[in-house]
Amino acid sequence: MKRRDFLKASLGGTAALLGSSAEARGNLEPAEEAIGMLFDSTLCIGCKACVSKCKEVNDMPPVPMGDETQYDAALDLSPKTLNVIKVYTAGEGTHKDQTEDGFAFEKRSCMHCVDPGCVSVCPVTALTRHPKTGIVAYNADACIGCRTCMTGCPYNVPQFDYDNPFGEIHKCQMCNQAGVERIDNGMMTGCAEACPTGATLFGTRKALLEEAQRRMTLKPGEIYNYPRGDVRNPDSHHEKAVPEYKQHIWGEKEAGGTNVLHISAVPFDKLGMPPLGERSYASISETVQHTLYQYLALPAIALAGLTYVVRRNNNDDDEGES
Ligand code: SF4
Ligand code: SF4
Ligand code: SF4
User: Fold this and answer.
1) How far is the CA of 137 from the centre of ligand 2 (A)?
2) What is the CATH number of the domain that holds 216?
3) Closest atom of ligand 1 to CA, residue 190
4) Measured from the CB, is residue 189 less than 6 Å from ligand 1?
5) What's the pLDDT tens digit per position in 199-237?
6) 183: containing domain
7) Residues 171 and 311 reside in one and the same domain
8) Are residues 242 and 119 part of one domain?
9) Is the domain of 190 the same as that of 307?
10) Average pLDDT over residues 54-68
């Protein structure tokens, strides 16, 4: 066997692998007709009608505080709560939407990422992104309970039900899972329908992004006619003085973007949002995974090169003997 031939064949394959591994996968684009919600923290009055409606639509039990009360007092997402309203307070906590001595509300539920990390890491495709609506759905029948999705989500959204002997993940599915199907039936999400102020607004991602961008240009103090319900065909409007919005639409770009957008007058780090760049978790992890798989394939490539050279040398020997 000629050692030079072996090395040439093996290293040729290696070079091809390294060349292709340098190609990083980019962020996915929003789905064709992506639907979502716009949460405007400055319009939220903390009434939690959206939390109650979410529980009603999704048939979920209340989370009482202590043994005495039976009403829902959920403080965070859990297998029994897909949507929760949290409050930020500072100092005296007396002025709404102010960072100092103020308070502000924040809605936490699945952000329906444009390029979802949970979908990317699930080994059995139990989580999927709908190609048309962009809704990130969950299939309990396919789920093996490995909980990998919990590590792939930048917002700590998927919740595992440890009390269920079969294990199951719970997260908002935009009120469109089997048995609910509000979106497929032309309805809006439960939380947007219940919200009395339009703080949770429903619509296409495109229309909601335009609405959020419009609000960024409004002059603080001027009166704006805020829509309620579906931004494309509002149930009603209400007039309100424009607050001093932070010039930041959360979800326009964060981690590849989300179909649920947030705007606020208080910085998002105060509202508990994680520090995120523009690149999606999915694009980073898939690029690393593919590179790793390719490097792990090196011994196989070396073996293929070795086999090829041995066969060729054998053929040469056979021809030489005849
Ligand atoms: S879209 Fe539906 S499931 Fe999601 S938070 Fe709103 S009401 Fe709950
Ligand atoms: S917020 Fe988390 S659970 Fe929801 S789509 Fe994004 S990665 Fe998945
Ligand atoms: S229903 Fe609307 S105003 Fe009430 S807590 Fe939910 S988002 Fe805020």
Assistant:
1) 10
2) 3.30.70.20
3) 7
4) yes
5) 999 999 999 999 999 999 999 999 999 999 999 999 999
6) 35-279
7) no
8) yes
9) no
10) 89
Alpha helices in 135-183 (DSSP H): 148-152
Q: How confident is the model at residue 317 (pLDDT cuts 50, 70, 90)?
A: low
Indicate if ligand 1 lies below 6 Å from the C-beta of 54: yes
CB 82 within 8 A of CB 171: yes
Could you identify the atom of ligand 2 that is nearest to the CA of residue 158? 3
**What single string gives the DSSP state of each residue in 150-184?**
HHH-TT---EE-TTSTT--EE---TT-STTT-TTT
Question: Cβ(112)–Cβ(174) under 8 Å?
Answer: yes
CA of 238 to the centre of ligand 3 (A): 15
Whether residues 141 and 214 share a domain: the answer is: yes
Span between the terminal Cα atoms of the chain, in Å? 19
Same domain (yes/no): 209, 298: no
Q: What is the pLDDT of residue 250?
A: 98
Residues 288, 274: one domain?
no
How many whole angstroms from 297 Cα to the centroid of ligand 1?
Answer: 43
Longest dimension (CA), the chain: 98
- Tell whether ligand 1 has an atom less than 6 A from the beta carbon of residue 58: yes
The pTM of the full predicted model, rounded to 2 decimals, is: 0.85
| Range list of H helices, the chain | 3-21, 49-58, 117-121, 148-152, 190-194, 205-217, 281-296, 298-321
Q: How far is the CA of 197 from the centre of ligand 3 (A)?
A: 7
**Tell me, what's the pLDDT at 304?**
45
Indicate if ligand 2 lies below 6 Å from the C-beta of 138. no
**One domain, residues 205 and 298:** no
What the block records as the tokens of 73 is: 């007092």
What does the block give as tokens for 284?
A: 């980073």
Residue 299 is predicted with a pLDDT of 52
Q: What tokens were used for 126?
A: 């139990």
Looking at the fold, whether 288 and 272 belong to one and the same domain comes out as no
- Report how many domains make up the chain: 2
